Amino acid sequence: MSGIYLLNSTSVGIFGMVVAAFFCDICWTRKKILLMTGCMSAILMFQGIIYFFVDADIVEYIYPFITHIPLIMMLWILSRKCLWSIISVLTAYLCCQIRRWLALLIVAVFSGEFMMQDAAELAMTLPILLILVRFIAPSVRSVSHYPTAVQYRFGVVPAVYYCFDYVTRIYTSLLLDGVLVTVEFMSFVCSMVYLLFVVRVSKEEQIRSRLEQTQDIMNLQNAQAVREIKALRELQQKTSTFRHDLRHHMQYLSSCMENGKIEQAQAYIQEICSEIEANKVTSFCENEAANLIFSSFAGRASDFGIPIKIKAMISQSLSISETDLCVLLSNAMENALHACQKLKKKGLSGMIEVSAYEKSGKFFLQVINSCDEDITFEYGVPVTYHPGHGIGVRSICTVVEKYGGIYTFLVKDDRFILRVSF
Hints:
Strand content: 5-15%
Radius of gyration: 37 Å
Number of helices: 11
Mean pLDDT: 84
Structural class: alpha+beta
Number of strands: 7
Number of domains: 3
Strand order of the largest sheet: 1-2-3-7-6
């Protein structure tokens, strides 16, 4: 037995134990470091005794009992996590194959012999160990904080490989004999794990997408609520101002009437009424929430000089919730207003037409606005790749789908048309 073989066997043992320790979620203190060092030393000494006084082949047979099980028990004591201690050791065992395969590659490239493989494995030990400890170990440790089900899924491949390696290479010669089922087994495992991984990631992505849409809707609801509160606060402040100035208005009117200036008094009254009328929430329909939204956007459109026509017949007892109605109307009109604002910046004219009504228990909405840009559609839905854009369209689709309705987006004669019914 050559010295380089013994040195390599020792290095792979140290490599695996160190990697397992760093993979395990342990808050290292001086006492724990000393315990871990003592455990590793005891394991290596016991392996050395068997090497020199029994037989090297015996070490491979009983390696799980003299190395892996004691290591798992020590990591369990240090971390208080039994499952993750097992997974850490199995994962470290799997990582030991990295240095072995790279050494085999070097031997194949340089047409070396068996002794060259030991030297190559020995040379690979420290660089791979540093890479695993520095870049891989933090991510592996983080999985120990996941639910138990996730930890089990993480440990499937290391556990299967561990059993496969010992059953087919150590305890039997199935792999060396080239039994086809044995040779293809790990390929089968990799394929199955990959497919399950794809399914799982797809489900998690769908869940994440739904959560993002929900968050976007909540953000929009909050933004709309803030706008409505701001509008109501401004209206309240103006009402307070009118109430405060009412005494002065009455004194002025009384003076006009005392001096026989009836026409001047009437003109003054009409002026005050016009100011009050301009600051009230316009009643487009019976639904108060819809009136607030329509009034808010009508005022914003007027401020930008954008003509807007709103025809609405929506009852207060609408089947759709007020929050969903807010999201639907706000996003539809916000998108239309933004499109017209872009036209105004280019010196072009824009317009918005809104129709909303109920019929036979169904809700219908149509928003038409001017546009001059090429709009990209995917599966009938307009999309944009600009960060922060496209949220409104997704929110509209989410609300409509929630009620089992249909939506249509189209561009016709420089007009963008949104139609919704459910």
